[in-house]
Design goal:
This protein is an alpha/beta fold. Among the domains are: 94 residues, Glutamyl-tRNA Synthetase, domain 3 (Alpha-Beta Complex), CATH 3.90.800.10; 66 residues, Orthogonal Bundle (Glutamyl-tRNA Synthetase, domain 2), CATH 1.10.1160; 200 residues, Beta Barrel (Ribosomal Protein L25, Chain P), CATH 2.40.240. It has twelve helices and 29 strands. The strands form eight sheets. Strands 12-27-28-29-23-26-13 form a seven-stranded mixed beta sheet. The protein has a seven-stranded mixed beta sheet with strand order 21-18-19-20-14-17-22, with no helix packed on it. Strands 5-6-7-8 form a four-stranded antiparallel beta sheet. The structure holds adenosine-5'-triphosphate and magnesium ion. The site of adenosine-5'-triphosphate has 14 residues, from α2 and β9. Pfam families: tRNA-synt_1c (PF00749), tRNA-synt_1c_C (PF03950), tRNA-synt_1c_C2 (PF20974).
């Protein structure tokens, strides 16, 4: 997976892919009477992540393209790990992404039907109750090169199997004591077809069915039945299920379903610097490595939302990466590119100083405040201007000063003149230091003739920097992020110990009015959002959505 895929930008609506080609054929052949019905089937055992977004977009937009329907179905056949908190978060995330399902369904609502189907298989001699332990079943299974061994319980009579299965259902046995297995072929080259387990015993409380059941169907058996019950036509899943497709087809064939749905596999999304497994993400949450499922560093939909990503950017990303049959690794820079593209004309710009250094304009009168006018958006003139106060004492970024300038450094250094955005040309005159030699203040002068908008053309300066008025500034917290997962020297993926940096920053006065959830560009810094959870207090917290410069190349 070392090779990072170069993805072509494509933003076309209704773009096609190999799945759509299959559907086109099905429509032509009237396989499903021209119907297209898809579903997104998450297991409610965690929050959705960006990989799920790919599947959501694919399933819902495919249905839209063909005037079909798409269900949200909770694949809740495993009682132990599932929870209603996850159910609720998944519904919210799908809606936030901009999709509305035809029906909201739970696989567990089909437990009766699935049981009935299992009884049918037993009656047909296609399923049997097996007393082998999980370990023994594994030992009997064989390998890729050797056939498996038949279970000694394989030839039980239909009557005995029916009785034993009913006993299983009635709680007569402990967990693991018995299973129901499909009777297929222990010498099949496909290990999934070697008498797979289709029901197991689990005395566990289920989030939906409570303690009604103590036997639960296995995924490979349950999923085709769920699809068939709902009238799904195209059951889209990820590539690791390709080898399970013969079993999917076997279940529906043996149950004699008419016009059975077809399973189509596509490559799952893998992203650089991103771990995408609910199990792993849950461990991060449980260990306290992050501040919950919606921590802005998490690749969850909830995390991306809190980070300031828009549904439009995520959908655009899913469109651009496309759908294929080959596994690959997508550069996270593409996702960052998509949010920049979306925000650049949508949000206004403000000045924020993250790491303040005091500037005193020695020739500017004391006790005077003037207002300068600055454009709200470079991309969109119609957003007009705002007034920003300017006075004798200001803050600039510590980074915008160098006592001994490097080559090509055009910002503040002794003797140099720069433009203060929207205000005046300012010259750095003196550097004030504390007892330890740290720079604590710059004494500067301004040239009144150079006021922005005055038409001054006397001379040019190479640098423009931002600033805030020290007397009017609003205190905010700014959180800049780095990737949560990085590779160490040995090439192993570890949790980045420096994935967040918080600044006590100064913002221009207009930012007192920013509401939680509002997005802005901080001039020269990047895009930010007022944190929804933490910005109700007087001192607002801003999450960095993305920085300004793109490392993504077409
Ligand atoms: P995880 O291992 O993260 O729990 P999962 O596949 O077990 O993922 P499900 O809840 O079963 O999670 O997934 C619901 C749907 O989302 C499935 O159809 C699955 O194939 C799809 N999906 C999950 N991860 C990705 C991914 N990285 N890229 C594309 N689709 C994905
Ligand atoms: Mg899963």
């Amino acid at each position: 997976m070392a090779e990072i895929e170069k993805v072509e930008g494509s933003n076309e609506q209704n773009s096609s892919n190999f799945i759509h080609n299959i559907i086109d054929k099905d429509i032509e052949n009237q396989t499903y009477g021209g119907r297209v019905y898809t579903r997104f089937p998450p297991e409610p055992n965690g929050y959705l992540h960006i990989g799920h977004a790919k599947s959501i977009c694919l399933n819902f937009t495919t249905a839209q393209k063909y005037n079909g329907k798409c269900n949200l179905r909770f694949d809740d056949t495993n009682p132990v790990k599932e929870d209603t908190e996850y159910v609720e978060s998944i519904e919210a995330d799908v809606r936030w992404l901009g999709f509305e399902w035809d029906k909201l369904l739970f696989a567990s609502d089909y437990f009766d039907k699935m049981y009935e189907c299992a009884v049918n298989l037993i009656k047909k001699g296609k399923a049997f109750v097996c007393d082998l332990s999980a370990d023994e079943i594994r030992q009997h299974r064989g390998t890729l090169t050797e056939p498996g061994k038949e279970s000694p319980y394989r030839n039980r009579s239909v009557e005995e199997n029916l009785t034993l299965f009913e006993n299983m259902r009635n709680g007569r046995y402990g967990d693991g004591e018995k299973v129901l297995r499909a009777k297929i072929d222990m010498s099949s080259p496909n290990i999934n077809m070697r008498d797979p387990v289709i029901y197991r015993i689990a005395h566990a409380e289920h989030h939906n069915t409570g303690d009604k059941w103590c036997i639960y169907p296995m995924y490979d058996y349950a999923h085709p039945i769920e699809d068939a019950i709902e009238g799904i036509t195209h059951s889209i899943c990820t590539l690791e299920f390709e080898d399970h497709r013969p079993l999917y087809d076997w279940v529906l064939r043996e149950l004699e379903w008419e016009a059975p749905p077809q399973q189509i596999e596509f490559a799952r999304l893998n992203l650089t610097n991103t771990v995408m497994s609910k199990r792993y993400l849950k461990a991060l949450v449980d260990n306290g490595d992050v501040d919950g499922w919606d921590d802005p560093r998490m690749p969850t939909i909830a995390g991306l939302r809190r980070r300031g990503y828009t549904p439009e950017a995520i959908r655009d990303f899913c469109e651009r990466i496309g759908v294929s049959k080959a596994n690959s690794l997508v550069d996270i820079a593409l996702l960052e590119h998509c949010i920049r593209e979306d925000l650049k004309s949508k949000v206004e710009t403000r000045m924020v100083v993250k790491d303040p250094l005091k500037v005193v304009i020695t020739n500017y009168p004391e006790g005077i405040t003037e207002e300068v006018e600055i454009e709200n958006s470079k991309e969109d003139e119609s957003r007009g201007t705002r007034k920003v106060t300017f006075s004798r004492e200001l803050y600039v970024e510590r980074d915008d000063f160098m006592e001994v300038p490097e080559k090509k450094y055009f910002r503040l250094f002794p003797g140099n003149e720069v433009r203060f955005k929207g205000a005046y040309f300012i010259t750095c005159q003196e550097v004030v230091k504390d007892a330890e030699g740290n720079v604590v203040e710059l004494q500067c002068t301004y040239d009144p003739e150079t006021r922005s908008g005055s038409g001054f053309e006397g001379r040019k300066v190479k640098g423009t920097i931002h600033w805030v008025d020290a007397n009017a500034a609003v205190k905010i917290k700014v959180r800049d992020y780095n990737y949560l997962m990085i590779d160490d020297e040995k090439g192993e993926t570890i949790i980045n110990p420096e994935s967040m940096k918080e600044y006590e920053a100064f913002a221009e006065p207009s930012m007192a009015a920013v509401k939680p959830g509002e997005r802005l560009q901080f001039f020269r810094h990047g895009y930010y959002i007022a944190d929804e959870k933490l910005s109700a207090d007087a001192e607002k917290v801003f999450n960095q959505i993305v920085d300004l410069k793109s490392s993504w190349k077409k």
